[in-house]
């Protein structure tokens, strides 16, 4: 598992609308993880993705980041729902954290 993999996935997630849609359609954590780690070949932990998120979003408040990170780690489907509902910044973060799994 690596920070490089987490950073590469996050960068791709920001610019790849098809990837975003595939993650939203996956449905559950096991399917998201299988797709991201098995099919796409990214390998990172939740902690590594959290670090990437914090580094890439310094303008966001701690409360905004915690709402997404805490929600996705406690209930992955909540994170996916946020990703579907709001798109962009927090949605990308929710999808990225959800892809990291538990």
Q: What can you see in these coordinates?
A:
- This protein has 102 residues and is mainly α.
- The chain has one domain (3-100).
- Helices cover 80% and strands 0% of the residues.
- It contains 7 helices and no strands.
- The chain has helices spanning 3-15, 17-26, 29-39, 46-56, 62-74, 76-86, 88-100.
- The chain is globular.
> Radius of gyration from the CA trace?
12 Å
Number of strands: 0
Tell me the series of helices and strands, N- to C-terminal.
HHHHHHH
Assign an overall shape. Answer: globular
Any low-confidence stretches, pLDDT <50, length ≥5?
A: 71-87
Q: Helicity, in percent? A: over 70%
Which structural class matches the secondary elements? mainly alpha
Largest sheet, in brief, is: none
Can you tell me the number of structural domains? 1
- Beta fraction of the residues? under 5%
On the 0 to 100 scale, the average pLDDT is 73
Tally the helices: what do you get? 7
Q: How far apart are the first and last residues' alpha carbons, in Å?
A: 14 Å
Give a short overview:
The chain has 102 residues and is mainly alpha-helical. The chain contains seven helices and no strands.
Please tag this protein with its features.
102 residues; mainly alpha
């Amino acid at each position: 598992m690596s920070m490089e993999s987490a950073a590469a996935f996050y960068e791709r997630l920001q610019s790849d609308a098809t990837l975003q849609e595939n993650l939203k359609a996956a449905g559950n954590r096991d399917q998201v993880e299988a797709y991201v780690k098995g099919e796409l070949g990214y390998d990172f932990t939740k902690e590594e993705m959290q670090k990437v998120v914090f580094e890439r979003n310094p303008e966001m408040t701690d409360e905004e980041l915690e709402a997404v990170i805490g929600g996705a780690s406690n209930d992955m489907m909540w994170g996916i729902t946020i990703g579907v509902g709001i798109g962009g910044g927090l949605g990308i973060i929710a999808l990225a954290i959800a892809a990291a799994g538990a």
